[in-house]
Amino acid sequence: MKPGLEAIIGLEVHLQLRTRSKLFCACRNAYGAPPNTQTCPVCLGLPGALPVLNGEAVRMGIALGLAVGARIRERSTFYRKQYFYPDLPKGYQITQGPVALVEGGVLEIPGDPAVRPGSGPVRIGLERAHLEEDAGKSSHDQRPEATLVDLNRAGVPLLEVVGAPDLRSPQEASDFLKALHRLVVFLGICEGNLEEGGFRCDANVSLRRVGEATFGTRVEVKNLNSFRFVKQALAFEIERQATLLGAEGTVVQETRGWDSERGETRSQRSKEAAMDYRYFPEPDLPALDVTEAEIAAVRSALPELPEARSLRWRSAFGLGADEAATLLQDPAFAGYFEALAAASGHGKAAAHWMLGEVSRTLNERGSGIEAFPVTPAALAELVCLVETRQISFGTAKDQVYPALVAGEGSAATIVARKGLAQVSDRAAIERLVAQVLAANPGPVAQFRAGKTSLQGFLVGQILKAGGGRLDPKAVNEVLAEGLARE
Question: Where are the domains positioned within the chain?
């Protein structure tokens, strides 16, 4: 981007809520059913059908608001937003009007050092989060001569989270999206499946000169359904606008789509203004009134939030920020780690196993922790055997862990059956050290002459002579004593 310009980015994120039924009717809210099998007169917009608000969707909206420190409005209203697409059977979408259920709030993300040198974490504001119903789905690639419409998704409850224009780079936009995604998944209000459209966003981006207070002409990039596409689409759009402004051109307010195959945004239509949607109050729904008691009930049911859990782990187990963030990749993985740390009593070692061997196994199998065949208690036994120096980490990793995953018994049983117990007997180790030193006079002489890196070679020879069963810590202690003697 040309020096002297800065990007102004705001994201509008649509979350499909994890309710059992749709927002205004009793139709099932579930992905993957045969087309047009989860519909009724209400979500199809047939004459005389009246909507009834799903109370669970309201509670989920309140949960997000409380988690980000927002204001929960005690009264909010529904409006009709009118536009005409084949997958919008009513010809309008029911959404919340000028007053939303949730207003304000913040999310904290790492600041992008490329645009905020030395800033550290930054707080990104949320303007509001409001309830609305989803549209159906149009498919344009199944038949060359027709567009197919599936209305199963019509009426599915959405929470639209409107971020403030506080983001300054594609990296910050991606970080904001990841932070919000992690939060709503841990709250249990959204599955967060990007490929199925359960978590998707529109990005608004404009450029202005550094130091200016007014915004430039805003362009909206629609329906970005991956963190990678958000970064790529915004990077392209920023450069496109910068090139236009650098050539004394004009940025046109419009809606653009992201073409991932071409790696570019493409114009779709001129950007609508609010008046184009002809908003008016929804006559079939009363105002939404939320009481203090209802808000308090949601607050009391909130789980421990990801950031609080990260801070607790870092304090209790000595984890780094990146380690804690990876362990918080999803609620099930975090829950397994929590149970493993508690059962073993060794939180740091438990994290090492989760981020190492367990993650490697899951990646190889292409599965989540839910399908991992070893219970936290069973893995904790292996962790304890290593931490109490009954077996070496190498033996645990290379021999015991694979057998444990294969279902060959408990860690202690596998160690006993295969004779893998670690030798810590000092006299036995001293004999092997003496043998290795006698067999390697050259490296010993070089070590004593100052080439201390050869200690690692000698340790390896001793461990090899011990069949991998020696306690490495004891070996190092005895070897150091032997090398110190002339």
Answer: 5-293, 304-418, 426-484
**283 vs 94, 311, 356, 454, CA distance in Å?**
11, 47, 57, 83
d(CA 185, CA 173): 18
- Among residues 359, 293, 353, 352, which one has the least CA distance to residue 330? 359
Taking the model in full, what pTM does it have?
A: 0.86
Q: Nearest to residue 364, comparing CAs of 330, 327, 314, 401?
A: 401
Rounded Cα distance between 399 and 395, Å, is 5
Structural tokens at position 339: 């149970």
pLDDT the model gives residue 239 = 95
What residues are paired with 76 via a beta bridge?
Answer: 288
Question: What's the angle, vertex CA 163, arms to CA 158 and CA 168, rounded to 5?
Answer: 140
Regions of the chain with pLDDT less than 70: 1-2, 271-275, 424-425, 468, 486
Distance CA(250)–CA(241), nearest Å, equals 8
End-to-end CA distance of the chain: 66
Q: Between the CA of residue 127 and those of 106, 199, 438, what are the distances in Å? A: 9, 18, 75
* Cα–chain center distance at 103: 24
The sign one gets for the Cα dihedral 259, 260, 265, 270 is positive
pLDDT score, position 1: 66
Both structure tokens of 68: 């980000």
User: How many Cβ atoms are within 10 Å of 135's Cβ, its own excluded?
Assistant: 21
Inter-axis angle of helices 170-187 and 55-67, nearest 10: 130
Q: Candidates 2.60.40.2470, 3.40.50.2000, 1.10.10.410, 3.40.1160.10; correct CATH number of 426-484?
A: 1.10.10.410
DSSP string, 379-427: HHHHHHHHHTTSS-HHHIIIIIHHHHHTT---HHHHHHHHT-PPB--HH
